[in-house]
Specification:
With 221 residues, the protein is an alpha+beta fold. The chain is 18% helix and 23% strand. It is built from 4 helices and 10 strands.
């Protein structure tokens, strides 16, 4: 795999290499080849259009999640999703961009693992309208709250701060002193030790909350 990356990205005329492969792919028909042709239409002449031949191509359904380990190339191609990441000190570009690509540094940091990334299954909690995604990394985990109309969720305090993002619907959240209206796109910082009461004021209120992993249960009905 390391040799494949090296040979492809150091080809003397990488644009001509990509165009030659594109011409051959137009004669075939499968999901990866269709993806490459779509990328070529969006990023003509970019060497990155061939990356689906070297990477895993994943199609995720609603509610599915995968874990991307450090130093592994990835690209989000279509649709909306939530990305939660640990602190990072660098972004190294591979392709599908007009910006600078640091190829020597790319070779140095890549892991060259060939297995697909692990799919993270949602975990049930003590509250039926809340699920949790816990990845192998300890820096973060994600909770998804999905409240039907007029349902209430009391979330007791935890020992770490959290970030909240409203995905869909309307509602409210309040602690002992303050109440906030929840609308799509609203984000809030939740201090450590803060109790919260969530109320749905629409057919469906979907809220994402992320924080570093905690060892003790933090849910109550």
């Amino acid at each position: 795999m390391e040799d494949s990356f090296s040979n492809y990205f150091t080809a003397e005329n990488d644009v001509d290499t990509a165009r030659s492969i594109i011409r051959k792919l137009k004669e075939r028909d499968n999901a990866v080849q269709k993806l490459i042709l779509r990328l070529n239409a969006d990023y003509p002449g970019d060497i990155g259009v061939m990356m689906p031949l070297l990477l895993n191509y994943l199609v995720l359904e609603s509610g599915e999640c995968f874990y991307m380990a450090p130093n592994e190339p990835h690209a989000y191609l279509k649709g909306d999703l939530i990305e939660v990441m640990a602190c990072s000190d660098n972004v190294i570009r591979v392709g599908l961009t007009p910006k600078h690509r640091d190829i020597p540094l790319l070779y140095e940091i890549l892991t060259y693992k060939m297995e697909p990334p692990p799919i993270i299954k949602p975990q049930k909690t003590h509250f039926q309208y809340c699920t949790k995604f816990t990845p192998p990394a300890t820096e973060f985990e994600l909770e998804m709250i999905n409240l039907p109309f007029e349902k209430v969720y009391y979330k007791k305090s935890i020992t770490v701060p959290s970030l909240l993002l409203v995905i869909k619907g309307e509602g409210s959240v309040e602690d002992d002193d303050t109440q906030f209206k929840l609308l799509p796109g609203v984000s809030l910082f939740i201090s450590a030790g803060c109790h919260a009461k969530y109320v749905s004021l629409s057919d469906e209120l979907i809220v994402a909350i992320t924080h570093s992993q905690i060892s003790k249960p933090d849910f109550m009905t």
